[in-house]
Design goal:
The complex is a heterodimer of chains A (about 280) and B (about 450). In chain A, helix 5 packs parallel to helix 6 and helix 6 packs antiparallel against helix 7. With about 280 residues, chain A is of the alpha/beta class. Chain A contains seven helices and 17 strands. Chain A is globular. Chain A folds into two domains: about 90 residues, Elongation Factor Tu (Ef-tu), domain 3 (Beta Barrel), CATH 2.40.30.10; about 160 residues, Nucleotide-binding domain of ferredoxin-NADP reductase (FNR) module (Rossmann fold). In chain A, about 20% of the residues lie in helices and about 30% in strands. Chain B has 18 helices and 16 strands. Classes of the chains: A alpha/beta (about 280), B alpha/beta (about 450). The interface between A and B is large, with 42 and 41 residues.
Chain lengths: ~280, ~450
């Protein structure tokens, strides 16, 4: 059991939950995720850890109501309620070192998992440039939090209602073309966005990682449902990832696999590409 | 004593059971059990006991059944086996205790497994197994990693010896493969949970949603959480794939994923439960072990019209229990033996449309004594299927090793442990599939039992 200590609405159908999870809060590192099962008949779904407070023993989850379970969680669970099962931390933590200049790209609610990684990069002395994108200004989340840990923050919206009008890849491409020194790009968001970020940086040979939000059942290496081709090899996102070299990920296959249960329901935790925060 | 043939096991008719998830075999009635028990010769030197990895006092419990003293029978069984209702259902008795039975030389051996199941079920239904054991706590703590058959057995034995035992389980419910792997129609989950509740009655604590290697490391368990010893029974959890083209198409499952969705997550009740499972009209299950039979029979129950077992060797080489193969055939599972997949074909949306196979023939015997299959030239063809389940085995999960560098593992990643389970780290023991590679429930239980004794020696 894990108690919901706080529930906040961040954007239409996007909620932040502060969960009582002392064991996870004590151990989790940036880049890791958890599995939840909200009640007896629910699925197990992976959610990336958005933030954590080791002293208070809490973790923050940002959930968008898109699938069966996420909608159930967002609509039917309130402060004081318990989530039946919460397991973590899971997955390999992000690689942490002083790279130099790091550009982090967050699309839709992908900004939440970007945040603790970007904060850690910043604390290690990296120059952090953050690009966060959404369909319109109402859907931009955690702007102030991101600003506080970024040396530079760029907001993009599809309709131009805030920041740059266009996609997250536009300012990234501009920087690369201008010849700015970028040592690492991290992208988290809809698969199509991560695919486009990888395609943008590839010609420049810029090291790029993506955190993959695949379908999972157990989250511990047991089901293989999260398998993804990386450099021609099958990897399990849950134990080998979730972060991989974005230039080696077979994104078209990943996108197809995300559609596996489309007819039955949506299992994706992110906007699943519906936010159109990037070019198709 | 009536000798001759064993009593048959009542079953649901094949064309009824292949459409439901109720248990296939129905168990002996009291009269059948007593009659079967009377066949036992009660040998002075019972070889059946040697054939049992946990050395159940077989003739004694059978004599108790023959004299209708079922309370005594369950007490005798439980002295050696904490999970008799499970073992009575899933142990390969024909290769173990029953293979040693003297009656088997000229006729049929005593149906030891069926009697074990009868006693466990009878005791559960009649409340005969509620005898409270008097345990004197010794104040020492032992942590068990993984709540499958090996871990549960070690936990039960250590609790009886007075240890304060906590079992850590990564999933949301205890039981390991008994919950996620073996289907409801072969092992009802209610029965697994009942046997686990009996362990809790002995004082065993179970912490679900705790993954050792992440939530706690082994070192933290011993240095910060105060455990004197740790037993690792994490099993063979990582599914193998064939590494052939098309394995990442939609409609391709590992047996682990398919069975976990259906068993642990109860996807057969979708949409009442939220976890979905895809089911094809024509399903190929690759492999021929018990897990493959489970996956094939589950597919049939979920509505597949044709279900094929695709196996590169012949019927004699199939590793599954004979009973499982027979049950599968009766339920309409089609065997495509001496066939090996070489690629899975898909459409432009990424869904399975067929599986390319090559025909095989048996050549010379290999190191395992089985004749090794060789490809027949130019025999490739496309098997018309829209779903594939890979059931070619599982390996060890790398997670624990990643955070426990001192723990020695072999090339395959299995933990290196001696005869009693001692590993390269003092106080850390291991057993079951994580040491041996994928094997049986009962051999994992045997390892748990040996390790419990070794842990007791170590902590004395």
């Amino acid at each position: 059991m894990a108690k919901i200590l706080k529930k906040m609405i961040l954007a239409p159908a996007v909620y932040e939950f502060v969960m009582e999870a002392p064991l996870v809060a004590k151990k989790c590192k940036p880049g890791q995720f958890i599995m939840i099962r909200v009640d007896e008949n629910s699925e197990r779904i992976p959610l990336t850890i958005g933030d954590f407070d080791r002293e208070k023993g809490t973790i923050n989850l940002v959930v968008q109501a898109v699938g069966n379970t996420t909608t159930h969680m967002c609509e039917d669970f309130e402060e004081g309620d318990d989530i039946l099962d919460l397991l973590g931390p899971l997955g390999m933590p992000s690689e942490m070192e002083k790279f130099g200049t790091v550009v982090v790209v967050g699309g839709g609610i992908g900004v939440a998992p970007v945040y603790p990684i970007a904060r850690a990069y910043h604390e290690m002395g990296n120059k952090v440039i953050s690009i966060i994108g959404a369909r319109n200004k109402d859907l931009v989340i955690w702007k102030d939090k991101m600003a506080a840990i970024s040396d530079e923050l760029i907001v993009t919206t599809d309709d131009g209602s805030e920041g740059h009008k266009g996609f997250v890849t536009d300012p990234l491409k501009a920087m690369l073309e201008k010849g700015d020194k970028i040592d690492l790009v991290l992208a988290i968001g809809p698969v199509i966005m991560m695919k486009n970020v990888a395609a943008t940086t590839l010609p420049f040979g810029t090291k790029t990682t993506a955190s993959l939000n695949t379908i999972m059942v157990d989250g511990t290496g047991m089901c293989g449902g999260c398998r993804v081709f990386v450099g021609g090899e099958n990897k399990f996102a849950c134990v080998d990832g979730p972060e991989f070299d974005a230039h080696k990920v077979d994104f078209p296959n990943l996108m197809q696999r995300q559609q596996m249960y489309k007819d039955q329901e949506s299992e994706e935790y992110s906007c699943g590409g519906h936010c159109k925060c990037v070019e198709d | 004593m009536r000798g001759g043939l064993r009593n048959a096991m009542p079953e649901q008719p094949a064309n009824v059971r292949n459409k439901n998830f109720e248990e296939v075999t129905l168990g002996y009635t009291e009269a059948m059990a007593v009659d079967e028990a009377e066949r036992c010769l009660n040998c002075p030197n019972p070889r059946c006991v040697e054939g049992c990895p946990v050395n159940v006092y077989i003739p004694q419990f059978i004599q108790a059944v023959a004299s209708k003293n079922f309370a005594e029978a369950i007490e005798i069984l439980k002295k050696k086996n904490s999970l008799p209702a499970v073992c009575g259902r899933v142990c390969p008795q024909e290769k173990q205790c029953e293979s040693k039975c003297v009656l088997g030389i000229k006729g049929e051996s005593v149906a030891i497994g069926r009697l074990e199941r009868f006693v466990a079920d009878y005791a559960r239904e009649h409340g005969l197994d509620k005898k409270v054991e008097t345990i004197t706590p010794n104040g020492k703590k032992v942590a068990i990693v993984g709540s499958g058959p090996s871990g549960l057995t070690a936990a039960g034995d250590l609790a009886k010896l007075g240890y304060d035992v906590t079992v850590y389980e990564a999933l949301h419910s205890a039981g390991g493969v008994l919950m996620y792997g073996i289907p409801e129609f072969r092992l009802p989950k209610e029965i697994v949970q009942y046997e686990i509740s009996a362990l809790k009655d002995l004082g065993v604590k179970i912490e679900t949603n705790a993954i050792i290697g992440q939530t706690f490391t082994i070192e933290e368990l011993m240095k910060e959480e105060g455990y004197g010893a740790v037993y690792i029974g994490t099993g063979a959890g990582l599914p193998h794939f064939m590494q052939i083209p098309g394995e990442n198409l939609n409609g391709v499952y590992s047996a682990n994923e398919f069975l976990t969705r259906v068993n642990l997550m109860k996807a057969y009740q979708f949409p009442k439960v939220a976890t979905p499972v895809y089911i094809g009209k024509k399903v190929a299950v690759v492999g021929a072990g018990n897990v493959a039979m489970d996956a094939a029979r589950t597919s049939k129950r979920l509505g597949a019209e044709h279900v094929y077992i695709v196996y590169r060797r012949g019927e004699e080489e199939m590793p599954a229990r004979l009973e499982e193969i027979e049950h599968a055939k009766e339920e309409g599972i089609e065997l495509r033996l001496l066939n090996n997949p070489v690629a899975i074909k898909g459409d432009d949306k990424g869904w399975v449309t067929g599986m390319e196979c090559v025909e095989m023939e048996l050549g010379e015997a290999d190191a395992s004594g089985r004749r090794s299959p060789v490809e027949k030239p130019n025999s490739n063809y496309i098997l018309d299927v829209d779903m594939v389940v890979m059931s070619i085995g599982q390996g060890p999960n790398p997670l624990l090793k990643q955070t426990t560098p001192d723990l020695e593992v072999n090339k395959k990643g299995n933990i290196i442990a001696d005869e009693v389970g001692a590993t390269s780290i003092p106080g850390v023991f291991a057993g079951g599939d994580i040491v041996t590679g994928a094997a049986t429930v009962i051999s994992a239980m045997g390892a748990g039992k040996k390790a419990a004794l070794a842990i007791d020696e170590y902590l004395k």
